[in-house]
Amino acid sequence: MREGDLGRRVLAEALGTALLLIAIVGSGISAQRLTDDVGVQLLVNAAVTGIALAVLISVLGPISGAHFNPVVTGVDRILGGIETIPASAYAVAQVGGAIAGTIVANVLFSLPGVDASSTVRTGAGLWLGEVVATFGLVMVIFLMVGTRRSTAIPFTVGGYVAAAIWFTSSRGFANPAVTIGRMFTDSLTGIAPRSVPAFVLAQALGGALALATVLVLRPGVRRVAAEVLVDG
Known about the structure:
Blueprint: H1 6-34, H2 38-64, H3 70-79, H4 84-108, H5 124-144, H6 153-167, H7 176-181, H8 196-217, H9 221-231
């Protein structure tokens, strides 16, 4: 990563994460207002989230790598794909962008900008769901990056996230920044502040397990990550 590009890359991470949260939270609020069928609400939210994520990765990936997720950034740091200072700046930008995006989504639908969630999400099943969701997400990304299939990453990641919203008990948050942002909306996609620490810990565990798995399945991934850093 060229030092002169850091500000541009951090801005891309903040903007991308904010737009992702607008899509997640906004589609959830919209779905709640359009139908009382919880299944339809979830379907709408999953589809919009997956499509928006694929688009954002396609557009912002060439600028910052389109992490939008502190776990992804952390794993990339361990693999040597990003240096410590940029990684820290990415994480701050992701969390800030997530909070800003949630506030904007609330305001778009005439709700209080900051509306603390009352939805408690707790229990071993939900925590395991976050481990599984994050494990799969990180594994998908780092098994594909730097390969001939890397151009499919936006659609693969978007599809995985949309699916994880359905197949995990936790609804596939899989992202500490997204989880923190969703504390600020008392709508379909919200999470009570007291439920956040356990979710974030589960996501970190999922990321660590994915990292170990990727290193076993693709031993050359460290070299690939370093090459991406030099080329970027």
